[in-house]
């Protein structure tokens, strides 16, 4: 199947291209087209992953439905037939990878929930005993479950730049004290709800990140949620603390890139066919398990 790396929908106004998504202006709405681009270390790779955009959209829709009792989200419809006529002419491109959403004002932070000590958090803990300024008990093992979910916000970077971890106090300065607390509470509630759903299906969600926006004075959930691009998924059956875990997510690509002599700056290296196909299979498998 053809890999969709970019879209050019003539007659529609392109608002911008993110690392993965092409966003079109529809007045008080936006059309979000999830392409098959893949980024790692904040660099977009030159080749993509077939069907990735469709899998990410499928999972986001699944989780929006599972969390709508906690918080409203920006989704209007993912059915191309229910979208404006100027969109329907591109149904062959848009089908399965597109959401028509409410336009809102995004908050300039990424809201990260960490349930297990891994990745950059594990590196920080080993050197400082803290993660993002949060003091933790001594003696924790790699991949161990935290006593309670950690909230570690980050500043939202432009494409090609690195997100930067910030303290909760810095987040309060960016969005205000009350909003910061509400975003933290929503993040932890959504994560823990999804974590429990996934655990029943044999999947551990080690950590994830969310984005929120404001619509008519109300906080809503936006962007993608709980996908292999934005989360770390582990197999519960294979899990054991005290070592790195085999990820069922974008870590597969990161692990390959770590073997290269590459400075983690653009342009990114082309991914070999076995890594492309392996990534597609991992993304498809996690979606099938979670939706089963």
Automatic annotation (TrEMBL):
SUPFAM superfamilies found in the cross-reference section: SAICAR synthase-like (SSF56104)
Regions annotated as coiled coil: none
Annotated keywords: ATP-binding, Ligase, Nucleotide-binding, Purine biosynthesis
Enzyme class: ligase
One Pfam entry name: SAICAR_synt
PROSITE patterns reported for this sequence: SAICAR_SYNTHETASE_1, SAICAR_SYNTHETASE_2
Similarity-based family: Belongs to the SAICAR synthetase family.
Cited NCBIfam families: PRK13961.1, purC
HAMAP family in alphabetical order: SAICAR_synth
Record-given protein name: Phosphoribosylaminoimidazole-succinocarboxamide synthase
């Amino acid at each position: 199947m053809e890999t969709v790396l970019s879209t050019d929908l003539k007659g529609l106004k392109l608002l911008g291209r993110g690392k993965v998504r092409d966003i079109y202006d529809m007045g008080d709405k936006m059309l979000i087209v999830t392409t098959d681009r893949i980024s790692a270390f904040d660099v977009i790779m030159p080749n993509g992953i077939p069907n990735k955009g469709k899998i990410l959209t499928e999972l986001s829709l699944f989780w929006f439905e599972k969390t709508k009792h906690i918080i409203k989200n920006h989704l209007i419809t993912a059915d191309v037939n229910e979208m404006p006529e100027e969109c329907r002419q591109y149904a062959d491109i848009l089908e399965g990878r597109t959401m028509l959403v409410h336009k809102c004002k995004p908050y300039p932070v990424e809201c990260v929930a960490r349930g297990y000590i891994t990745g950059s958090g594990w590196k920080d803990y080993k050197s400082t005993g803290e993660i993002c300024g949060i003091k933790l008990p001594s003696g924790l093992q790699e991949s161990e479950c935290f006593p309670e979910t950690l909230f570690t916000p980050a500043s939202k970077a432009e494409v090609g730049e690195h997100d930067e971890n910030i303290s909760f106090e810095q987040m309060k300065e960016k969005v205000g004290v009350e909003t910061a607390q509400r975003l933290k509470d929503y993040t932890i509630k959504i994560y823990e709800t999804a974590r429990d759903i996934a655990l029943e299906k044999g999947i551990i969600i080690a950590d994830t990140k969310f984005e929120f926006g404001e619509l008519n004075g109300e906080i809503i959930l936006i962007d993608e949620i709980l996908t292999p691009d934005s989360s770390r998924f582990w197999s519960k059956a294979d899990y054991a603390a005290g070592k790195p875990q085999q990820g069922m997510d974008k870590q597969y690509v990161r692990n390959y890139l770590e073997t290269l002599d590459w400075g983690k700056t653009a342009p990114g290296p082309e991914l070999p066919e076995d890594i492309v196909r392996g990534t597609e299979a991992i993304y498809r498998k996690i979606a099938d398990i979670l939706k089963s």
